[in-house]
Amino acid sequence: MINDPLVIDVFLLDSASYVQVDVVEGGVSRKPTLLKARAADPPYAELKVRPLRAGLVKECGDKLCASLAANPGVLATLDRFQTPPRDTRHPIYVSIGDPEHENLPWEAIWRQSVEFYALGQHWPIARLPSASDDTKVAERVIGEVPRIMAVIAAEGADIDGEWTGFNKLLDQFPDRIDMHVLLASDQLKARIEKLKLPRVQCSWIGETADDVIQRIRTWSPNIVHFFCHGTSQNGGSLSVVNRLGETVKIPRDKLLQLRENDGLCLVVLNCCLGGNADPNDHASSIARELVKAGLPAVVAMREIITDKSANAFTSSFYAELFVRLRACLDAHPAGDNGPIEVPDDTWLDALFHARQALNPAGMLPADALEWTLPLIYVRRGGLQFTRRTESNARKAAEAGVLRDWQKILQAQGAFPDELRKLLEEKLKQ
Hints:
Layout: E1 2-3, E2 6-13, E3 16-23, E4 33-34, H1 56-69, H2 72-80, E5 88-89, E6 92-96, E7 110-111, E8 115-116, E9 125-128, E10 138-142, E11 147-152, H3 159-172, E12 178-183, H4 186-194, E13 200-204, H5 209-219, E14 223-227, E15 229-231, E16 237-241, E17 247-251, H6 252-255, E18 266-269, H7 286-292, E19 297-301, H8 307-330, E20 340-342, H9 345-358, E21 374-378, E22 383-387, H10 390-412, H11 417-428
Parallel strand pairs: 1-5, 2-6, 6-9, 10-22, 11-12, 11-14, 12-13, 14-18, 18-19
Antiparallel strand pairs: 2-3, 3-4, 7-8, 15-16, 16-17, 19-21, 20-22
């Protein structure tokens, strides 16, 4: 499949929003023009009102697309994209230059000649964290099989339904995935352990945000999935519940520590508002900040999402993702030390199938918000894996965590000699 992308830069200058085409071929105008669209204006602001007015999603997508197409470069490119050849795809990347533009429903853009772009396989939509996005290939390591760390700890939510989606994935790929579940429910833990899955383990959620992040980093996953509660306020944070029934808040700055894991290629925030910016303090979304910090890809929800939709997303997204990811890995069997290319299509195709699953039966897409909620931020340079042994991967991750503790204890001035010597010995091993 040939990729012929459109990259649209959206940026703020002197309190006004502008749009321009970033990458084009052959004489298409790059002149910036005003973007007459703000998330706080009608009809976009109405997307927060329930029940949703009939036809509102289409109205928002149509108006937003018309605002983009007022730019000659965008219009000319979209016109060229109307009838793509069978072997050509036209990914649409929206480069977000300011938090002001994050809460617009880019995933819902609609045009008479195409209808909803994101519901057609030829026009997947993704976001870039900035116009100056790093275009270097993201290099990550992977072991014998991919590793998923699933944090399933949303208080009062359908955690059983969330696990069911992963259980279906493990049935589809037996012995082809390592999985570690962080949870707080005795019942769910017993349900998982009763299955006696050889590559699946469970642990309790820690008592602090540092505990949660350290457990993730020590296990060194390739994918981290959060099913919890989220907010965009005060810079954004996630909330999980531990076994004692206590809420553990994980602020954005703690999540940014995950960028240091050299195997992590995808974070999925299957919670409310992980892709939502806070207009009150001009703060970017958690998703955008994670990719700006260097992670290859982050999937998140733009607005509030129900348990039912979140569970449906997990089941459909991962089923397709691992079909694509396994194809990349199987092309390089064990012993082949060559680089493993993972194209953006891997994430975008999985997200396309998730959108289909989130479109409620019996409802027109023009009336349904759910399928527009998932968004993805990616880096423009793509992803490349190299293989290494599981023992080396674990050792490197544990060393990283130990070095973090060294820094913390040294900064606090509370570093007993015995503990200092123990850490130094561990790091020499």
